[in-house]
Amino acid sequence: MNDRLTPLLWMVLSFLLGSIPWSVWLGRLFLQRDVRQYGDGNPGTTNVFRAGSKLLGLLVLLLDISKAAAPVGFAYHNLGIRGLTMVLIALMPVLGHAFSPFLAFKGGKAVASAFGVWIGLTIWKASLPAVVFALIGLGVFRVAGWAVMLALAGILVTLLLWLPEPLFLFVLLGETVILGWTHRADLRQPPRLRPAVKQFLQRSGHLRCDD
User: Tell me: the pLDDT tens digits for 110-125?
Assistant: First the structure.
């Protein structure tokens, strides 16, 4: 295959794989429902759970992660692609999920696909901190978008301290822009704390009652 065509083909392949709306297709196949009629109306794992199937929701989560991890990991580790080309390949699955041509370019929030990218690039080195910070964020904030931002901040800290490779930093920047857009409704709201967290901070004197 022409060496000049290989990166372009991988960009296209990564975008197409990322754009596969597993939640919508499998929801129709196994639940006879459109998962976009639940929750926030987006095609994604959370709304599969809300549609009534934990098992299918878990399957969709794994598929959404894998559709990003597989092409990104192969391009990075097996083909040895680097530089701006690799940055673009890494962002394609996230863009594909967020703007899926299979759904008239109205995709989901792309969190699982963004996570899959880090598995593809670093296996567990950046993806594990992402999970830890995301869980912390979900436990602290009432709005999911701020939990996602905390997870991205956790990845940034990990990269700066452990994996300060410019390629990774540019991928993170691109993901932050995309996920900031897909979570824009959440991020318009202030980062509100969960009641239990707020009460704990008030009792410990770190938060005034009127905050």
Answer: 999 999 999 999 999 9
**Domain ranges across the chain:** 5-204
- From the list 165, 51, 47, 43, the residue with the least C-alpha distance to 113 is 43
Confidence of residue 5 (pLDDT cuts 50, 70, 90): confident
Q: What percent of the chain has pLDDT over 70?
A: 95
CA distance 33 to 10: 33
User: For residue 86, what are the contacts with CB-CB under 8 A and spacing of at least 6?
Assistant: 75, 76, 167
Give the residue-averaged pLDDT of 20-37: 96
Residue 207 has pLDDT above 90, yes or no: no
How do residues 74-109 score in pLDDT, each as one tens digit? 999 999 999 999 999 999 999 999 999 999 999 999
> Cα(125)–Cα(97) distance, rounded to whole angstroms?
23
Residues 6+ apart with CB under 8 A from 72: 14, 89, 90, 93, 116, 117, 120, 121
